[in-house]
Protein: Cytidylate kinase
Organism: Actinacidiphila cocklensis
Amino acid sequence: MDNPVIVAIDGPSGTGKSSTSKAVAAKLGLSYLDTGAQYRAITWWMLNNGIDVNDPAAVADTAGKAVVVSGTDPLDPQISVDGVDVTMPIRSQEVTAAVSAVSAVPEVRSRMVEYQRAAAASAAAGIVVEGRDIGTTVLPDATAKIFLTASAAVRAARRSTELNGTVSVAATQEALTRRDAADSGRKTSPLAMAADAVEVDTSELTLDQVVDRVVALVEQKLATVR
Ligand SMILES: Nc1ncnc2c1ncn2[C@@H]1O[C@H](COP(=O)(O)OP(=O)(O)O)[C@@H](O)[C@H]1O
Ligand SMILES: Nc1ccn([C@H]2C[C@H](O)[C@@H](COP(=O)(O)OP(=O)(O)O)O2)c(=O)n1
């Protein structure tokens, strides 16, 4: 039997990682893992349990307590913490504002990386894993590595549309740029493109075009290794 296919999709917020990863996984018959949702879930748990998310020692001390369980169906991605379905609440502005601080704490990262490698190892046909450090740190031997980019203005416009215009594009862009800087500047496993990743700028592409390009890149890679 062929080895499982591992596709790593990294990049900053709003570049299309989730939409692309789900569609690529569905097209190729692979599992799907949203690692950003896992960092959001543990952040939700910290906020819900009154942990000061700006105190790295308090976050580190409690990082091992939350039990995060991620579904890997690209058509119905779900996530729970301690048995509570948090698929919706992890998208709140409060969680979004706190997630970079929580995900910078090494104890949080080591626990999440353990979950992520276990999910990849148990995906029979293979998996599409999206995040910030999948190609560099979590799954450096991935079959194909893609790094999605887009201009800050395009990303902010996409996010603002998602929020039905309740937050202005300017405020969204400012928050997004701040999170990019925190995610790229942290010591442990920052947001970065792997040396052997292929960059796809999605600013001027439709989602279908991005998906087709990524599927073609995966098929190209498979043709060389199989
Ligand atoms: N190529 C694209 N063109 C236009 N809109 C897109 C494109 N890719 C994604 N989107 C939209 O942009 C928003 C952010 O996409 P998402 O996949 O959540 O990005 P990420 O996971 O990188 O944060 C979503 O509302 C999505 O529908
Ligand atoms: N592999 C990952 C994935 C996400 N993170 C952190 C950093 C990100 O700002 C948050 C949230 O990620 P998520 O992919 O949900 O963010 P967006 O939906 O793209 O805005 O989690 C990380 O540190 N490492």
Notes: The pocket of adenosine-5'-diphosphate (ligand 1) is lined by residues 11, 13-19, 158, 162, 202, 205-207, 210 (CB under 6 Å).
